[in-house]
Write a structure and sequence with these properties.
heterodimer, A: DNA polymerase, domain 1, 2 domains, five-stranded mixed sheet, 5 helices, 34% helix, B: Uridine Diphospho-n-acetylenolpyruvylglucosamine Reductase, domain 3, Enolase-like, domain 1, 3 domains
């Protein structure tokens, strides 16, 4: 017996993707395999590492802890959707570049989406608040110091623009 | 790390959701999924069907009345945590919710889902138990109210039947002259607590008329111990009832040590809170 497939309309970064998936397709896999948006990285696949974090209706959410079939009513933003309309880097992306906030880059998409939403809620975080903002994301390269700096730098860039 | 196949429905009415659950004894409710989806991915759970309740109307509320806070099945932890009126009515909600996982998980995970997931290492089941709240549940057979004292059956097991959906949780308001406090020790903020302790105290002038402690991660089910008669040694009284376990995160001895450290500290904070709440 072949597995039942579901037709799902996903709205990602302002575009509609019509995909046909089994119910067990994780949103993270649907984004990568069915929508071709490989910017979302899959690390632990059980919600611990934060690499797959996307914005669901503007709120940071683990895409590995959501089924694609549950995302039908949602507006999803992936790291690809953070870039400015003219293709230039968003404040958070620019800040990661300025502050050397990444090394291998695997965890970076999850940090960028988390911080982009975090700065909407708190545009002027203290260093402690910046740490708290990224506390749910793991990075095995940087030691976090430059990521925390990048949060503060992104807030500066946003305030100046 | 991929879930096994299952049937899936996303009903838009409660009646349809209840009928779908009743039709499949191997079915499970999907709300926030922050505990269920990892269990599926690790294949620790393999339900035959999921009934996604996220499209049901009128379940996203956090409603505050004089008697307490009512939390709908689709209210996310983040919604409850951000609700100023809920925090004022029952301060223990926000005290404990800020320790529930990380903000990203709280954005999707539901408070009611966490209650019926019945994890003794989770904060909110213990909070409901300590406050003597209850859960309203529905099935095709009708509705009933389950008091917190009757909600938890065992590790990750509530007393809800397979065809029941928890619609709403009720957390009683903090009464005058009552106080609460919460503290936990975890490897990192947001990780599961090695031990968490909440206290609820009631004072009449200088006399403490009631003192109860709730514990996270020291037993198979959320547990509450009355320490009114043991104010000078609440941890000793509690440890007579508790059997902290060994696991990869902490030894039983270390958990008992944390109970001895946290219990008096949290109780003192709750008593102080009660005295300031006269």
């Amino acid at each position: 017996m072949s597995e039942q497939q579901h037709d799902v309309r996903l709205r990602v970064n302002g575009s509609v993707h019509e995909v046909r998936v089994p119910a067990r397709r994780l949103l993270s896999d649907a984004l990568r395999h069915d929508c071709g948006l490989t910017g979302t990285h899959v690390g632990c696949e059980h919600g611990v590492c934060g690499a797959c974090t996307v914005l669901v209706d503007g709120r940071p959410t683990r895409s590995c802890l959501m089924l694609a079939v549950s995302a039908v009513d949602a507006e999803v933003t992936t790291v690809e959707g953070l870039t400015e309309p003219d293709g230039s880097l968003s404040p958070v992306q620019q800040a990661f570049s300025d502050c050397h906030g990444l090394q291998c880059g695997f965890c970076t998409p999850g940090f960028l989406t988390t911080i982009a939403a975090g700065l909407e809620d708190n545009p002027d975080p203290s260093e402690d608040e910046a740490r708290e903002m990224v506390a749910g994301n793991l990075c095995r390269c940087t030691g976090y110091q430059n990521i925390v700096k990048a949060v503060l730098r992104a807030a500066e860039i946003k305030a100046g623009s | 790390m991929k879930p096994a196949p299952f049937a899936f429905v996303r009903p838009s009415t409660l009646d349809d959701a209840l009928a779908a659950l009743a039709a499949d004894p191997g079915g499970k409710v999907l709300a926030g999924g922050q505990s269920l989806v990892p269990l599926l991915s690790m294949r620790l759970a393999s339900p035959t069907a999921l009934v996604d309740i996220n499209a049901l109307p009128d379940l996203g509320h956090v409603r505050v009345a004089e008697d307490g806070v009512r939390v709908g099945a689709l209210a996310r932890h983040a919604d409850v945590l951000a609700d100023a009126a809920a925090r004022e009515s029952q301060p223990l909600l926000a005290m404990a919710l800020s320790h529930v996982a990380h903000a990203t998980i709280r954005n999707r995970g539901t408070t009611v889902g966490s209650l019926v997931h019945a994890d003794a290492a989770a904060e909110m089941p213990m909070v409901l138990r300590l406050l003597d709240g209850h859960v309203e549940v529905a099935s095709v057979r009708g509705r009933r109210t389950v008091p917190a004292a009757e909600l938890f059956a065992g590790p990750l097991e509530s007393t809800l039947a397979h065809d029941e959906i928890a619609l709403e949780a009720f957390f009683p308001a903090l009464a005058p002259r009552a106080g609460v406090a919460f503290e936990e020790v975890a490897r990192r903020h947001g990780d599961y607590a090695l031990v968490g302790v909440a206290a609820h105290a009631v004072c009449d002038g200088d006399t403490v008329t009631s003192a109860r402690l709730g514990f996270v991660s020291v037993s198979d089910v959320p547990v509450v111990v009355d320490v009114t008669d043991a104010l000078d040694d609440p941890a000793g009284r509690a440890l007579a009832d508790l059997e902290p376990g060994d696991d990869i995160h902490a030894t039983a001895d270390y958990r008992a040590h944390l109970v001895r450290v946290l219990a008096p500290r949290v109780l003192a904070a709750a008593i102080e809170h009660a005295r300031s709440n006269a």
